[in-house]
Amino acid sequence: MGYTLTRVAYAYDRLRAHPPEVAGQIATAMAGALQTRGEEAVFLELGVGTGRIALPLIARGYRYIALDHDPAMLEVFRQKAAGVMRKVQVLEADARKVPLPDESVHAVIAVHLWHLLPDWPKALAEALRVLKPGGVLLEGWDRVVSEEEWALQEKWRALVEEEGFPVERGLHQRRLKEVEEALRRLGLRPKARQVALWREERTPRESLEALQERLYSFTQRVPQEAHERAMARLWTWAEGTFGDLDRPFTVEKSFHLRVTRLG
Ligand code: SAM
């Protein structure tokens, strides 16, 4: 496995990790949505990444199919799950073509995935195909509120635009809405709620590093040279604006879960 890819996978992990109590609240909410009719529950996660959502459920003893198309993410996932892998099946596969039979799992989890797939209807169709009757689609997403973080990201965007590359933001929320509409058109009734709310500290340096590593999906389409030039200017701007890049600011975070039950 390439060192760089694995390093980026770990960096992604640090940025998005949930505090243990939050991870527990999310796992409880997801497990609470299951209806298994006496069978052993089987979860499938599309785009499992490094296992942020999966590991707390696996640790509770659930059978879990961890699917992702990125071997670097799966490598980190395998290392983290090493002690609890007994009931885990790792699938290196595309979420738009899931190598599982129809009606074979009780829950499909999709967290921060749809916006990465221009042809998301294919992945949604696959999720619904592999769910058993009475099974649940569990879609989740984080929200982050922080003036400082927003200021840094918007400055990066302005600098990249000066390089001639317009950047689209807000795709994630728009895509969630599109998926919800698609589910309603199928006669399903998705229900969303906030399942966790917490605060974290972050430094401007950490936010800059996350931008530099392109850990946010909105940064990923900009050509490398333009990104590097914008980043060089952004570090200078941040030093002028924040002074001490290691003085933390507060970030308010929440996690939201949308549950859609089949039949
Ligand atoms: N669900 C995890 C979480 O919330 O921590 C990971 C989210 S991460 C933003 C998205 C993951 O989806 C990445 O690991 C990426 O490799 C994976 N992914 C993107 N497109 C995919 C596809 N077409 N098939 C399978 N996995 C995909």
UniProtKB/TrEMBL annotation:
In terms of superkingdom, the source organism counts as Bacteria
The alphabetized list of GO BP terms reads: methylation
Coiled coil located at which positions?
Answer: none
- SUPFAM superfamilies on file: S-adenosyl-L-methionine-dependent methyltransferases
Which Pfam family, giving just one, matches this sequence?
A: Methyltransf_11
Q: Where are the transmembrane segments?
A: none
Q: Name one GO molecular function term.
A: S-adenosylmethionine-dependent methyltransferase activity
- CDD domains linked: AdoMet_MTases
Q: Which residues form the Methyltransferase type domain?
A: 44-138
Q: What keywords are annotated for this sequence in UniProt?
A: Methyltransferase, Transferase, Ubiquinone
- Fetch the PANTHER family from UniProt: METHYLTRANSFERASE, N6-ADENOSINE-METHYLTRANSFERASE TMT1A
Q: By what name is this protein known?
A: Methylase involved in ubiquinone/menaquinone biosynthesis
Q: What organism does this protein naturally occur in?
A: Thermus oshimai JL-2
